[in-house]
Amino acid sequence: MSIYRIAYLMLLVLLAFIIIAVISGMSFPGDTVVDNWINSIQSGFLDSAMPVVSYLGAFPYCIIASLLSGLIFWLLRKRIEALFIAGIPYIGVVISYVLKFLIDRPRPLGDSLENSFPSGHTIFVFILMGLLIYFLPQVVKNKAWRIALQILAGLLIALTGLSRLYLQQHWLSDVLSGLIIGVLVLVPAIIFYKYVSKREIKCLSFLKSKP
User: Fold this and answer.
1) What single string gives the DSSP state of each residue in 36-94?
2) How does pLDDT run across 15-54, given as a tens digit for each residue?
3) CA 45 from chain center: how many Å?
């Protein structure tokens, strides 16, 4: 078994452990500590900035972001990539809604909102930005620009998770679980993409070779 498969299985086990801990009412290490830290850094600037960051993973902005990104790739004649970008993030959304329905966990803010686990915003943004990071080399040939855009995408992932914590809409374990689910969805999606791409290349080669 390769190290990648071992790492993937370890993430599955970790996610299962967190789910069991949340269902049983156990206090996940770091949840309370991070929530107290968030309370200590509240500021006017962050109060204004964090909701804006959080919008990327919220309806309807998440739909606009994925469709617009997919449209750009489609116009650049990257049709398979466009379909993946426009569709794959919603696999994470479905998983998020199923877990939220099964695990009715209160949010840190203590308002009327429930279903804190996992962070759907984090899942969606991680998958969307992860796909963009992976596909960018195909459409951005300038290395400096490509790296800059990939770093920006990575920062959006980190800031989205932080924004959900800052707004006290999620516990640390919610966000960590969102990141794990994002990885668990993204990795098979990329493997499937490679398979589909190879099949497309073989089909095109076969058609070109026909007299």
Assistant:
1) HHHHHT--HHHHHHHHHHHGGGSTTHHHHHHHHHHHHHHHTT-HHHHHHHHHTHHHHHH
2) 999 999 888 888 788 898 998 899 899 899 999 999 999 9
3) 25
- Return d(Cα 81, Cα 79) in angstroms, integer: 5
Q: Which 3 state secondary structure label does DSSP give 18? A: helix
Return the structure tokens found at 34.
């991070």
Q: With contact defined as beta carbons under 8 Å apart, do 86 and 70 qualify?
A: yes
Name the DSSP class of 57.
G
Hey, what are 189's tokens? Answer: 């999606």
The Cβ-side half-sphere exposure at 201, using a 13 Å CA radius, reads 6
Rounded Cα distance between 126 and 179, Å, is 7
User: How far apart are the C-alpha atoms of 201 and 211, rounded to whole Å?
Assistant: 18
Encode 142-187 in three state secondary structure: CHHHHHHHHHHHHHHHHHHHHHHHHCCCCCHHHHHHHHHHHHHHHH
- Residue 15 near residue 184, CB atoms below 8 Å: yes
3 state SS of 115:
coil
* pLDDT tens digits, 68-96: 999 999 999 999 999 999 999 999 999 99
- Quick one: tokens of 142? 């300038």
**45 residue type, one letter:** F
First vs last Cα of the chain: how many Å apart? 44
